[in-house]
């Protein structure tokens, strides 16, 4: 029996369109739906507005909590739109602390993803699977009445967001978009194929130039990415589904540079700089500026 609990405290969120918004529901973060206006007509191309909203929810998930599961450390922020009560945003918190690092490290074992017909070959990273199933019932309950669902997360949060999105879609719920930032690989090839058969066209994995986390767990261990890739370059550009050399080469160069700091552990940690959420926010600002 899950011991997940609902967190208390009034949620306040600043929208560029609506100023400070205080929600009457202490566990419902609200956002003006004008940020989502273009999405319906641009399903195959990323709408920067919805991506930015998901990025901001992913950031806020590090501080505000709707569902808190102490057994796995999984925390979820669930919010809505100021003028559209039928829409729901589900954001998973990323890695923060030893417990989350233990979850990340459970990649040597994959667990089966049960399908409607029973057993399947789809296998999911054990830690991500445990994190998701520990809150699945609570999330499903909150999402059951939604007319439009947006799922997001950064780092570990992105890895848990993907099984959440698939689970909701398999239960017939309207998952309209999935945006994950700096997301690791989540499962094997069969898992990727199952996910993509349901949500490929509405899922974007945002990858910042030089971010090492999307390259883990190792490909050689059978892990594959699901959804579409959206590569953010340091110059302010963005490319959908780039060729491997376009994003692997800058990452490899970063590794080579960091190898020079092998005798300086603190400097070596800078390899994770591109993974930080603040870097994604900076690159989104550059992208927005270059598209004006």
Walk me through the structure.
- The protein has about 290 residues and is of the alpha/beta class.
- The chain has a single domain, classed as Rossmann fold, CATH 3.40.50.
- The protein contains nine helices and 14 strands.
- It has helices spanning about 50-60, 100-105, 125-135, 135-145, 155-170, 190-200, 245-260, 265-270, 275-290; strands at about 5, 10-15, 20, 30, 65-70, 75-80, 85-90, 110, 125, 150-155, 175-180, 205-210, 230, 240.
- The strands form three sheets. Strands 1, 4, 5, 6, 7, 10, 11, 12, 13 and 14 form a ten-stranded mixed sheet that branches. Strands 2-3 form a two-stranded antiparallel sheet.
- Helix 6 links the parallel strand 11 and strand 12 (about 205-210).
- Helix 1 runs antiparallel to helix 9.
- The longest helix is centred in the last third of the chain and has 16 residues, at about 245-260.
- It is globular, with a radius of gyration of 18 Å.
- It starts with a strand and ends with a helix.
- Residues about 1-45 have low confidence and may be disordered.
């Amino acid at each position: 029996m899950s011991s997940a609990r609902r967190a208390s405290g009034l949620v306040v969120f600043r929208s560029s369109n609506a100023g400070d918004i205080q929600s009457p529901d202490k566990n419902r973060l609200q956002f003006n739906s004008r940020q989502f206006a273009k999405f319906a007509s641009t399903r195959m191309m990323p709408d920067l507005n919805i991506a930015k909203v998901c990025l901001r929810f992913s950031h806020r998930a590090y501080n505000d909590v709707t569902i808190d599961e102490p057994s796995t450390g999984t925390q979820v922020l669930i919010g809505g739109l100021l003028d559209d009560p039928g829409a729901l945003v589900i954001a998973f918190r990323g890695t923060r602390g030893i417990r989350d690092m233990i979850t990340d490290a459970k990649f040597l074992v994959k667990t089966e993803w049960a399908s409607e017909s029973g057993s399947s070959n789809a296998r999911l990273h054990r830690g991500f699977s445990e994190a998701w199933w520990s809150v699945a019932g609570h999330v499903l309950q909150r999402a059951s009445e939604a007319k439009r669902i947006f799922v997001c997360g950064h780092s570990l949060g992105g890895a848990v967001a993907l099984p959440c999105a698939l689970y909701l879609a398999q239960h017939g719920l309207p998952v309209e978009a999935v945006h994950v930032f700096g997301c690791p690989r989540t499962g094997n090839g069969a898992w990727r194929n199952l996910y993509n058969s349901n949500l490929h066209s509405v899922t974007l994995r945002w990858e910042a130039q030089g971010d090492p986390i999307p390259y883990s767990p190792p490909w050689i261990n059978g892990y594959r990415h699901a959804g579409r890739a959206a590569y953010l370059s340091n110059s302010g550009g963005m490319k959908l589904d780039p060729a491997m050399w376009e994003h692997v080469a800058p990452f490899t160069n970063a590794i080579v540079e960091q190898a020079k700091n092998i005798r300086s552990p603190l400097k070596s940690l800078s390899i994770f700089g591109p993974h930080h959420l603040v870097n994604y926010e900076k690159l989104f600002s550059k992208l927005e500026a270059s598209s004006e």
